[in-house]
């Protein structure tokens, strides 16, 4: 797709995971700053979703199929917000661990998206 | 079994709190991953690897049930989830060995192929972690009624 954006989403997701993993190791729940970080990563993933759909509408074809590509786009846009909501409910270190796991999952999804688009 | 609204809502969530919340999240993600994988593959080309796709669908059902049990909480859900985690672990080990011994039976991968290597081995780690949590999770029911035999 757009390699730079895929890379940016993947790296920010990993940074978010490391940051929340640090909070977990210090026995802290997610704070306002963490949620701002989650918002940044989520916006990047949403931009990627929009660009991906626009490219599909423009006639581009992912190497491994349209359905799988769209499924991964939606999954990558939903991953961090879903983890964020769970950490809102869980006000302990385990809420931080949930967001950290969400960041790692998003990074893995980005690697897969790159493969699916490029083959 | 119906739950009356007078009961404290907290009692229903003893398995999905603290470390359990992380398990709910991971099981939820794997439910979506396994379900969407099998659905997409079955729709696109079921004939290519029917066994692999059906096994992915079975995995999705098991993951969904464990997620639901963790959220629901309570002694019955704990037992049901423990049984399912055992089935999940057995499934990963059997399918993982099967894919190594008879790769020709699997033209396409399942969630549990090669012991879940394509998923960072999380399919093997998750049921073990979940069983440990299910055995030691604090039970609200346990404090008032039946004792927790595991003795944390």
Explain what the structure shows.
The complex is a heterodimer of chains A (119) and B (152). Helices cover 83% and strands 0% of the residues of chain A. By secondary structure, chain A is mainly α. Chain A starts with a helix and ends with a helix. Chain B is mainly alpha-helical and 152 residues long. Chain B has one domain (12-137). Chain B has helices spanning 19-45, 50-72, 75-101, 122-136, 140-144. The two termini of chain B are 29 Å apart. The chains are: A mainly alpha (119), B mainly alpha (152). Chains A and B meet through α3 and α4 of A and α1 of B.
Total helices of chain B: the number is: 5
Average pLDDT for all residues of chain B: 84
Rg calculated over all Cα atoms of chain B: 17 Å
- Poorly predicted segments of chain B: 1-12, 141-152
Output the number of helix runs of chain A.
Answer: 4
Shape verdict of chain B: elongated
Ends apart, CA distance between termini of chain B:
29 Å
Protein structure class of chain B = mainly alpha
Q: Helix- and strand-based class of chain A?
A: mainly alpha
Element-level helix/strand string of chain A? HHHH
Keywords (chain A): Membrane, Transmembrane, Transmembrane helix
Organism (chain A): Streptomyces blastmyceticus
Transmembrane segments (chain A): 33-54, 66-88, 94-114
Protein name (chain A): Integral membrane protein
